[in-house]
């Protein structure tokens, strides 16, 4: 719901009206625009990445506290991101390499195999 004080074109309007227009404010200006619909095209590449991400999150959840601490200790080398983010960064990059060479697939036909 929009909160408006002082008329529709006031400097204090913010939020959406009727799901049609949105009032938005930035540091230096305010503007009105048509409310956009979120898109989720569900492309094959997008589904593949989501499957890969979910598989890596499952790996994190299965780590012991000592293993998680290992990634926390790597934090300074990764812009002081939390260990969880460091783990995701490392694993997503390595998963891209494994998938590139066909050593791993994600999704319903998930499999894992190293180089022959």
Short description:
With 116 residues, the protein is an alpha+beta fold. A 3-stranded antiparallel β-sheet has the order 1-2-3, with no helix packed on it.
Report on the architecture of this protein.
This protein has 116 residues and is an alpha+beta fold. It folds into two domains: 10-37, no CATH class; 44-108, no CATH class. The protein is 39% helix and 15% strand. The chain is built from three helices and five strands. The strands form two sheets. The chain has a three-stranded antiparallel sheet, with no helix packed on it. Strands 4-5 form a two-stranded antiparallel sheet. Helix 1 (44-61) packs across helix 3 and helix 2 (65-73) packs across helix 3 (83-100). The chain is elongated and about 50 Å long. Mean pLDDT is 76; it is low at 111-116.
What is the element layout, followed by pairings?
Blueprint: E1 15-17, E2 21-25, E3 30-34, H1 44-61, H2 65-73, H3 83-100, E4 104-105, E5 111-112
Antiparallel strand pairs: 1-2, 2-3, 4-5
* DSSP E strands, number: 5
Helix-strand category: alpha+beta
- Biggest β-sheet: count, sense, barrel? 3 strands, antiparallel
Order of strands, widest sheet: 1-2-3
**Which word captures the global form?**
elongated
Residue-averaged pLDDT:
76
One letter per element, helices H and strands E, the order comes to EEEHHHEE
Helical percentage: 25-40%
Number of helices in the DSSP assignment: 3
Outline the low-pLDDT stretches.
111-116
Identify the notable features of this structure and list them briefly.
two-stranded antiparallel ribbon; 2 domains; 3 helices; 5 strands; three-stranded antiparallel β-sheet; disordered C terminus; 15% strand
